[in-house]
Amino acid sequence: MLRFAEKLDAVAVATNPVRYLVPDDAFLADALECMRAIVPVASSNVSRTNAEGWLKPSAEMRALFADRPDLCDATLEARRAVLVRSGSEAGPLPGLPDPRWTFRRRRARRPMLARRPTTAA
To answer: Is 37 helix (H, G, I), strand (E, B) or coil?
Structure first.
């Protein structure tokens, strides 16, 4: 990919194939993938080969790309450009709540909603 970017005179960035927010959600991502394909949850039916498809913080990405810090710098510059064009410097996705908080809150509320008493009409 680096040679391809160089050939096109494009800026390369550091990235990984994000499929879930935290490492513990790898199995959930596998289950959803298998549900979409209507197949049993089994390693033979899952496209991932390891549990590295989670949204890593900047420090971990820098460690992974230690030999190419310029790629991490380019990633942050691309993010800044998106935020400036959108008119927001507030968060990772302008106008949207932090996805980690939203997902965890929704997951935590599920059992509470199941236990909530219903009122008779």
So the answer is: helix
Torsion of CA 39, 45, 51, 57, to 10 degrees: -70
Closest CA relative to residue 22, chosen from 67, 54, 45: 54
Cα 93 from Cα 91, distance rounded (Å): 5
Q: What is the pLDDT along the chain (121 residues), one digit of tens a residue?
A: 889 988 998 899 998 888 888 888 888 889 999 999 999 999 899 988 888 888 888 899 999 999 999 999 999 888 887 766 656 555 555 555 555 555 555 555 555 555 555 555 5
CB 52 within 8 Å of CB 18: no
